[in-house]
């Protein structure tokens, strides 16, 4: 929560706190219940069906709309994560470019100082705080990538659950078909 209040989701701060994408959200169980009056009303709305009637809808093999939608959401999340990774690549590319500029500037300054020493003048300081190449580049926030990764894990779990149920139904139907 301290990181969220300060909006400081950098890689260094996350490593200090030992946080990963799994730690971002905590699942809280919620129990929803209806009053007795609502339950009685809902029972009255149900169609009168005999208890002996078989519920064949449970054996329906088609889960494609649900599965298809979750796979589409997963693909969209992967695209979002790719965009987040591009932001970090851009940051690190700028950081390496800045370090190269700093090294070039330091080499130039050292050669100037050698020339000044040879001429008997006082050398210039090696680091100039007013120079913009010495200004640190802020690291982008990692909160977005953590949230996207958590969302992708949820979609994968849902896909895994649905596909597991579908395989169970398929094996059941295969066994019934053999008989």
Mean pLDDT across the residues is: 82
- The Cα radius of gyration reads 31 Å
Could you list the spans in which at least 5 consecutive residues all have pLDDT below 50?
none
Helix content: 55-70%
- Spatial gap, N to C terminus: 59 Å
Helix and strand composition category: mainly alpha
The share of residues in extended strands comes to under 5%
Individual helix count: 5
Total count of strands = 0
Taken from the alpha-carbon principal axes, the silhouette is: elongated
SSE pattern: HHHHH
What composes the largest sheet?
none
Q: Can you offer a commentary on this structure?
A:
The protein is an all-alpha fold. Helices cover 63% and strands 0% of the residues. It contains 5 helices and no strands. α4 runs antiparallel to α5. It is elongated, with a radius of gyration of 31 Å. InterPro entries: eIF3h_C. This is eIF3h C-terminal domain-containing protein.
Map the helices and strands.
Elements lengths: L1 H5 L4 H6 L19 H10 L18 H56 L23 H36 L1
Please describe the structure with a list of short key phrases separated by commas or semicolons:
179 residues
């Amino acid at each position: 929560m301290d990181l969220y209040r300060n909006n400081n989701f950098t890689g260094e701060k996350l490593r200090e706190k030992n946080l990963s994408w799994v730690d971002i959200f905590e699942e809280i169980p919620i129990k929803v219940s209806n009053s007795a009056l609502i339950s009685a009303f809902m029972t009255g709305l149900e169609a009168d069906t005999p208890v002996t009637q078989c519920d064949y809808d449970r054996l329906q093999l088609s889960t494609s709309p649900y599965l298809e939608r979750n796979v589409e959401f997963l693909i969209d999340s992967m695209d979002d994560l790719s965009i987040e990774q591009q932001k970090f690549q851009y940051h690190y590319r700028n950081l390496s470019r800045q370090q190269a500029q700093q090294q070039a500037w330091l080499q130039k300054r050292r050669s100037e100082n050698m020339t000044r020493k040879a001429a008997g003048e006082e050398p210039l300081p090696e680091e100039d705080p007013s120079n913009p190449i010495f200004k640190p580049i802020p690291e982008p926030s990692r909160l977005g990538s953590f949230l996207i990764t958590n969302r992708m894990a949820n979609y994968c779990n849902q896909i895994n659950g649905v596909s597991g149920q579908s395989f169970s139904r398929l094996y059941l139907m295969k066994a019934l078909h053999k008989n």
